[in-house]
Amino acid sequence: MKAISLWQPWASMIASGKKTIETRSWPTSYRGDLLICSTKKPRVGNLACGKALCIVTVRACVKMSTIHEERACCEVYPGAWAWILSNVRRIDAFPVKGSQGFFDVDFPVEARQGQKALWE
Q1: Whether the Cβ atoms of residue 27 and residue 82 lie closer than 8 Å to each other
Q2: Which long-range contacts (CB under 8 A, 24 or more apart) does 8-11 make?
Q3: Predicted local confidence at residue 10, as pLDDT
Q4: pTM value?
Q5: CA pair distance 106, 3, nearest whole angstrom
Q6: Mean pLDDT in runs of 10 for the chain (120 residues)?
Q7: Is 114 helix (H, G, I), strand (E, B) or coil?
Q8: Number of domains in the chain
Q9: What pLDDT, on the 0 to 100 scale, is given for residue 8?
Q10: How far apart are CA 30 and CA 62, in angstroms?
Q11: Backbone Cα Rg of the chain
């Protein structure tokens, strides 16, 4: 499965449904399911680090503007792209060795059993 690593607390904010737009300095033409993973460092409180947390659907990618700030949980910055996410599904978290950009992860069957849809 295609995956991406995010620093905490943003990875957990997506997994909880609070953050519905991911921002990057690069656009993506990818559409479809994406595994959201938390980076191993830095550690933030008791939030999961180095783990796959949820699956989302990437619906669109547009230049970020002020209308995206609330759902992105950040302000517009130069060169920002807004990745519009939907259909978040929490999973049973499992360890992942992350990487920059997109990377592939073998998704264990037992983690799929814990999928729970939070929002469309």
Answers
A1: no
A2: 8/38, 8/39, 8/42, 8/43, 8/44, 8/45, 8/47, 8/48, 8/49, 9/44, 9/45, 9/47, 10/73, 11/36, 11/37, 11/38, 11/39, 11/47, 11/48, 11/53
A3: 97
A4: 0.89
A5: 10
A6: 96 97 98 96 93 97 98 98 96 90 84 53
A7: coil
A8: 1
A9: 96
A10: 12
A11: 13
What's the token pair of residue 27? 């656009």
Residue 11: predicted pLDDT: 97
Contact in structure between 114 and 89 (CB atoms under 8 Å): no
CATH number of the CATH domain containing 96: 2.30.130.30
Residue 110 CA, distance from chain mean position: 20
pLDDT of residue 113: 56
- Domain of 59 in residue numbering reads as 2-119
- The CA distance from 30 to 73, in Å, is 22
Grouping H, G, I as helix, E, B as strand and the rest as coil, residue 12 is: helix
